[in-house]
Amino acid sequence: MSRKKIIAGNWKMNKTPSEAVELVKTLAPLVQNPEVDVVYCVPAIDIIPVRDAIAGSNVHLGAENVYFEESGAFTGEISPAMLKDAGVEYVIIGHSERRGYFGETDQDINKKLLKLLEHGFNPIVCCGESLEQRESGITMDWINMQIKIAFQGVTADQAKGVVIAYEPIWAIGTGKTATTAQAEEVCKGIRETICGLYDEATAAAIRIQYGGSMNAKNCAELLAEPDIDGGLIGGAALKPDFGTIVKC
Ligand code: PGA
Questions:
Q1: How far, in Å, from the CA of 176 to the mean position of ligand 1?
Q2: Which CATH class, in words, describes the domain spanning 5-247?
Q3: Which of the residues 37, 85, 161, 169 has the least number of beta carbons within 10 Å of its own beta carbon?
Q4: For residue 85, how far is its CA from the centre of ligand 1 (angstroms)?
């Protein structure tokens, strides 16, 4: 089964609305590749200007977070319906920065995943271990727990459309990439976990990205692995390097 590669930029808390439009313009000629799904996951305030700037191009619109309630007294939060109405297709949930700095739990991520699926989004569910966890040999146990909780109540059909991003925390923004073998080992392990939760067909359909200091230099080797179906790119998504990754 051939899975379409997906290269998503996670812009994090970077770019004002006008800077965002400038970046879209700079990247536009560099990110044309019909064989790949290209996604810009941008800060909430940049969603509408970026939507307008990518109109008619091959780039898909993404958000970096969502809340799991429909509406109401949740000051500062953004609902699924708001994202839908703004034209968002992909939504990152469970990024390690959300978990670490904002206290998001696996249960929150499960609620967000169910809500996104109910609204017909393509969720990008992040998971990943800390350096301490890797060094104590519990990487796969930790990730299995994250995945199993996140996918509670998700059907096989729904799971097929979910993207999982494996992002070792120690590799994010550090310039320290997991080795190709380490990244492939965990992505393969995640696919096996999905197979255990669902079946072979679901495991073969679900797309698994690697994220963590992926750049123009190391992308070719990582993306050549059988279980790595794309990348979630932070730092390099804000530079012309992103185009190199899309074309790689
Ligand atoms: P990085 O970030 O590419 O800057 O390491 C990846 C991510 O956090 O999604």
A1: 11
A2: alpha beta
A3: 85
A4: 27
Decide if 63 contacts 83 (C-beta within 8 A): yes
Domain map (residue ranges) of the chain:
5-247
CA dist list (Å): 207 to 3, 146, 228, 246 = 7, 17, 8, 16
* Residues 70-123 pLDDT 10s: 999 999 999 999 999 999 999 999 999 999 999 999 999 999 999 999 999 999
Q: pTM of the full predicted structure? A: 0.98
Sign (positive/negative) of CA torsion 109, 111, 114, 116? Answer: negative
Residue 19's CB is within 10 A of a number of other CB atoms, namely: 13
DSSP-derived pairing of the beta strands 59-63 and 90-93: parallel
Helix, strand, coil proportions of the chain in percent (round to 5)? 45, 15, 35
Protein residue with least CA distance to atom 6, ligand 1: 234
List pLDDT tens digits, range 20-47.
999 999 999 999 999 999 999 999 999 9
Q: What number of CA atoms fall less than 13 Å from residue 116's CA on the CB side?
A: 34
Residues with CB under 6 A from ligand 1: 10, 167, 172-173, 211-214, 232-236
Q: How many C-beta neighbours within 10 Å does residue 134 have? A: 19
**Residue nearest atom 2 of ligand 1, based on CA coordinates:** 234
Q: How far apart are alpha carbons 107 and 232 in whole angstroms?
A: 22
